[in-house]
Design a protein that fits this description.
Number of domains: 1
Oligomer: single chain
Strand content: 25-35%
Number of helices: 2
Helix content: 10-25%
Structural class: alpha+beta
Length: 98
């Protein structure tokens, strides 16, 4: 899932993190390996948002998934993993007054 400008702002306020820049040299490799996403890096590895399917929700919830883990302690190389849901769920809908 590629986040819109408004969704990026909501995610930043929730996570306190910026996404991997779209012009980063590794972006073509990331997209080839994991598809079109807005990518985030943290101490665990590479993460992406995926929509949460809630029929009754008027909001726009998305869960953060770990898709690649750091291969070693130096955090220089990522290793793909079976997508693992995290505890982070963010309502990506902009606030009503935005």
């Amino acid at each position: 899932m590629i986040l819109s400008v408004n969704q990026l702002e909501v995610a930043k306020s929730a996570l306190g993190a910026d996404p991997v820049p779209t012009d980063h040299p590794a972006m073509p490799q990331l997209q080839q390996a994991f598809g079109e996403h807005t990518f985030y890096l943290d101490a665990r590895g590479l993460l992406v948002f995926e929509p949460v399917q809630e029929e009754t929700s008027a909001n726009d919830p998305a869960r953060l998934y770990l898709v690649a883990a750091w291969a070693d302690e130096s955090r220089q190389q990522l290793s793909p993993v079976q997508p693992q849901p995290t505890d982070v769920v963010v309502d990506l809908a902009p606030p009503a007054d935005a």
